[in-house]
Amino acid sequence: IERNLVFATVTKGLTQNIENTNWESHRKYIELMVIISGKENIGIADISKATAINKYDETKDAINYKAEGEMYTARPVYYFIFFNNDVVRPNISEGRNKMVKKIIIRIRAAN
User: Fold this and answer.
1) pLDDT, tens digit (0-9, with 9 covering 90-100), for 18-72
2) Rounded CA gap, 1 and 8, in Å?
3) Strand partners, 104
4) 3-state SS of the chain: helix, strand, coil percent to 5?
5) Sequence-ordered strand ranges (E) for the chain
6) Which residues pair with residue 33 across a beta bridge?
7) Is the CB of residue 91 less than 8 Å from the CB of residue 8?
8) Is 0.85 topped by the overall pTM?
9) d(CA 34, CA 63)
10) What are the b/e assignments for 76-110, b being 16+ CB within 10 Å?
């Protein structure tokens, strides 16, 4: 697999209080997220209903937004696929901040 087409990152860290998290989207890559251990809340909104609060950063493939969305609980039995039209607010704690380990697979989006 060519590195710029598909790659994976395993992360381990504490969830955050919602006020310490940001809405974000990506243009170059679709993301497949799987929780390995722990759980976190994730906000998901449609990009057409979000307002960009900064310019797109090509090196990070990210842009941040102000948005309202639905909240979901991510745990090991679920996986999430985030497309380019999704605005996502990951890593939100359920009460206390807890350790979460996850794998994020990034798949190059078609032009």
Assistant:
1) 999 999 999 999 999 999 999 999 999 999 999 999 999 999 999 999 999 999 9
2) 11
3) 9, 33
4) 5, 60, 35
5) 6-14, 23-25, 29-37, 40-46, 51-52, 63-66, 70-74, 79-82, 86-92, 99-108
6) 80, 104
7) no
8) yes
9) 22
10) eeeebebeeebbbbbbbbeeebeebebebbbbeee
